[in-house]
Amino acid sequence: MTTQHYIKDYPRPQFVRDAWQSLDGEWDFRFDDDNVGERERWNEQLKGDLKIQVPFTYETQASGIGETVFHPYVWYERELQLPADLGQKRVLLNFQAVDYNAKVWVNGRYAGGHKGGYAAFSLDITDYLNTAPGVPNRLVVKAEDSQSCTQPRGKQRWVEENFECFYVQTTGIWQSVWVEYVSPSYLKSVKITPDLDTRSVRFEYQTHVAAPNLRLETRISTGEQTFKQVSLQADRAWLQLDVELTHEAHGPWKLQSWSPASPMLYGVEFILYQDDLVIDRVYSYFGLRKISIEQGKVLLNNTPVYQRLILDQGYWPESHLTPPSEEALIADIDAVLAMGYNGVRKHMKIEDARFLYWCDVKGLLVWSEMAATFEFNDEAVENFTNEWTEIVRQQYNHPSVITWVPFNESWGIPEVYTNKRQQKFTEAIYHLTKSIDPNRPVIVNDGWEHTISDIITLHDYEESGDALHKRYADAGSVLGGEFSFNNWKYVMAQGYAYRGQPVIVSEFGGIAFDSGDGWGYGEQVGSTEAFMERFRSITQAIKDTPYICGYCYTQITDVQQEVNGLLTADRTPKIPLDEIRKANLQLTE
Fold first, then answer.
1. Alpha-carbon distance 414 to 372, whole Å?
2. E strand or H helix at 423
3. Counting beta carbons within 10 angstroms of the beta carbon of residue 388, is it exposed (0 to 12), middle (13 to 18) or buried (19 or more)?
4. What is the pLDDT at residue 482?
5. Phi, psi of 498 (to 5 degrees)
6. What is the rounded CA–CA span in Å between residue 131 and residue 125?
7. CA-to-CA separations, 425 to 310, 381, 385, 496, in angstroms, rounded
8. Cα–Cα distance between 329 and 263 in angstroms, integer?
9. Does the structure show a pLDDT above 80 at 539?
10. Distance CA 373, CA 411 (A)
C-alpha cells in the first residue's frame, strides 16, 4: 500500500524525482571543541580521526561512536561521485535536518549554510563542483550546536546529565543527506490545497526559471489513470492554478475523501517542458480532506471526529531522534493503529518526512508540534519564528497533519499567564501560522494557559478515574477559570476567555510498571491487571465527559529514563496490543 511513485528510503516522498543519490553512510568525522577548524582550514582537508555513520549523531550507538558528552563543534567530510552523464544538470545538495547551525563547503569553497535543527534545507552546489569525468569532489560540513535555551531544542537536555523528561542532546547531521540532479530550469516546490466542498485543488508553484518557452503541465491520477490534465506557461517564479476535480471525458468524477477509515491519495505529476522537451518531472500526491471546527467539535470532512491520540516522542535506544530505518517508522505506525488509536501527537519533535508519508498512506492523524525553546528573549523569538515558518511550509501538503502545535505547557513562554509580551508572541505565532495555513487548527499553548487557540487542551495525570470525572464535571467552572485544574494550572491566560472551542485532554495516563528504574506519572503498578484497571478508569472518565471530544495518552514507548510507554524502548509490548485496542474502541464507539 504505497503511492504509485513511492521509492523506498527516498528522503522526501512528497516531492519525488527519479535522479537522486543518497549520501548516507560512512563519513570522516572530527570533534572541534576549541573551534579552531575554520581558522586552520579544515574545510580544505579535514583529516578526520573518526568515522561516523550518517545520519546518526555521534551520541548514538548507531553512529559507530556512541559518546554522549556534549561537543559544540563537529565536522564531517566525504567524497561525492557525480554521474558520468551529468551534462548541464544542476546539483542540489539536500539535508533533511542538521542540529543546529550548518556550514557547507564543496572542494574547499563555502557553498552555504542553514540555522535550525529540525527544518530541511537545500543548496545548489553546481558552481563549486569539478565536473570532469573521474575527478573527485569533497563535501565538508561543520555543525555548530550549543546548550543554549534560546534555540529550539525540544526534549534535548542542556546540562551534562539527563533529568526529568529531558534526554541526551542531538548534535549535527541527524537525518538523511542526499543530492538530486535537475535542469537549469526546474520546479522548486508546490503548495497543494485541496478543497473538499468545492471539489477542487489549488496548486501554488515555485519555479527556478532560467530559459524561455517553459510550460508546466500538471496531471492528477488515481493509480495509473490520469483523470485531469492542465497546463500553464511558466514565465515567472511564482504561479498559481485552481483545478476543478472533474473528469474531462465523463463529467463529474466520483471523488473519494481522505480519512483514517479510507486514506485515499491522488497522485500528481508535474512536468516542466522547454518547447516540447521534458526538462523536469516531479511526483507528488494529495488527500482530499477537510479539517474544520463547529459548535465545539473538530470535524473531519464535515463529520465530527473523536480523536484517540497517543503521545509519540520518536526516540530509539540505538539511534535516539533518528529513525533506525524506514521499516522502524512503519512498525511504530502499525503498533499505534493496532492499539486502536487513530492519531499521534508528535511531541517536541519534527519527525522524518517518511513518517508523515506513511501516516498519509495508512490514515493516521498527526498533530505536528514544534520543539520548544526554554527562555524568552528576542533571540529565542527570532530562532523560533524562523524555524517554525519553515516547518509549516514543509509539512503543509501532508493530509495526515491536522493540527499545528507551536507551544507546549508554556515552555519558552514561562510567564505567559500574566506577561503581555509573551502573550503577544503566542498571538503572533498563531496568526503567522494561519497566514501560511488557514485551514488547520492551531493550538496555543498546549496543556494550559491558552491565549488564542482553535482547540483548548488540558494536561492532567490524575490516577483516579473518579477524581478525574469529578474535576471536569462542570465545564463552566473549569473553562471559566473559577479554579485551577490539575491543582496548579488554569485553562486560560489572564485577559483571555474560553469562547466555545473544542476541548481535548491532550496528555494523561503515563502509567509505569514498577521496575525499580526510571519514572512515570503517579504510583507505578505491579501487574497487567492493575495497569488495565487504571487505564480503563481514567480513559472512561474522559469519555464520559460530554464536552471533551478527544484524548492523547502518554505514551507509545519508554524513552531513556522515562518508563511510562505502552511499549518498551525497543518496542516490546508491555500489555497485549489487542487489550489496549479493545479498551480504546469500547470507550469511544
1. 11
2. helix 420-436
3. buried
4. 76
5. -65, 135
6. 11
7. 28, 8, 10, 14
8. 18
9. yes
10. 7
Q: Who contacts 370 (Cβ-Cβ below 8 Å, separation ≥6)?
A: 118, 152, 350, 384, 387, 388, 391, 405, 406, 407
Cis check: omega of the bond before 555, within 30 degrees of 0 = yes
In tens, the pLDDT along 203-236 reads 999 999 988 999 999 999 987 788 899 999 998 9
- Assess contact for 323 and 96: CB atoms under 8 A: no
pLDDT given at position 210: 86
Q: Is the pLDDT of residue 250 over 70?
A: no
Written as nine digits, the cell of 456 is 483548548
Rounded-to-integer distance, Cα 142 and Cα 113, Å: 9
pLDDT (0 to 100) of residue 589: 46
What does the pLDDT average to over 114-124?
98
The sign of the torsion formed by the CA atoms of 49, 53, 58, 62 equals: negative
The rounded Cα 552 to chain-centroid distance in angstroms is: 17
Q: Which amino acid is at 196?
A: L
Q: What is the pLDDT of residues 470-506, one digit of tens each?
A: 999 999 988 988 777 666 788 999 999 999 999 999 9
As a 3-state breakdown, the chain gives helix, strand, coil percent values, each rounded to 5, of: 20, 35, 50
Nearest to 183 by CA among 86, 95, 81, 284: 86
Q: C-alpha grid cell for residue 99? A: 542540529
Instruction: Using the structure block, give the residue that is written with the C-alpha cell 512528497.
Output: 14
Predicted local distance difference test score (pLDDT) of residue 247 = 61
pTM over 0.90: yes
Q: Which domains does the chain have, with CATH numbers?
A: 24-175 (2.60.120.260), 186-286 (2.60.40.10), 302-588 (3.20.20.80)
- Residues with Cβ within 8 Å of 282's Cβ and at least 6 positions away in sequence, in order, are 15, 16, 17, 187, 190, 269, 270
Nearest to 550 by CA among 503, 501, 583, 582: 503
What does the H/E/C string look like for 252-300?
ECCCCCECCCCECCEEEEEEEEECCEEEEEEEEEECCCCEEEECCEEEE
Q: What is the pLDDT of residue 201?
A: 96
Number of helices (H), then strands (E), in the chain: 8, 31
- The pLDDT of residue 258 is above 50: yes
Please state, in angstroms and rounded to a whole number, the distance separating the CA atoms of residues 176 and 354: 11
Single out the residue of 78, 97, 94 nearest to residue 171, CA to CA. Answer: 97
Is the separation of the CB atoms in 78 and 47 below 8 Å? no
Strand 548-554 with 307-312, pairing: parallel
Fill in the amino acid letter for 421. Answer: R
CA-atom Rg of the chain in angstroms: 24
Question: How far is residue 358 from each of residues 39, 228, 353, 397, 554, measured CA to CA in Å?
Answer: 44, 25, 9, 13, 22
C-alpha cell at 24: 548516507
The DSSP-derived string for 105-172 is EETTEEEEEEE-SSS-EEEE-GGG---STT--EEEEEEEE----TTS--TTB-SSSS-BTTBB----E
What was the pLDDT predicted at 516? 76
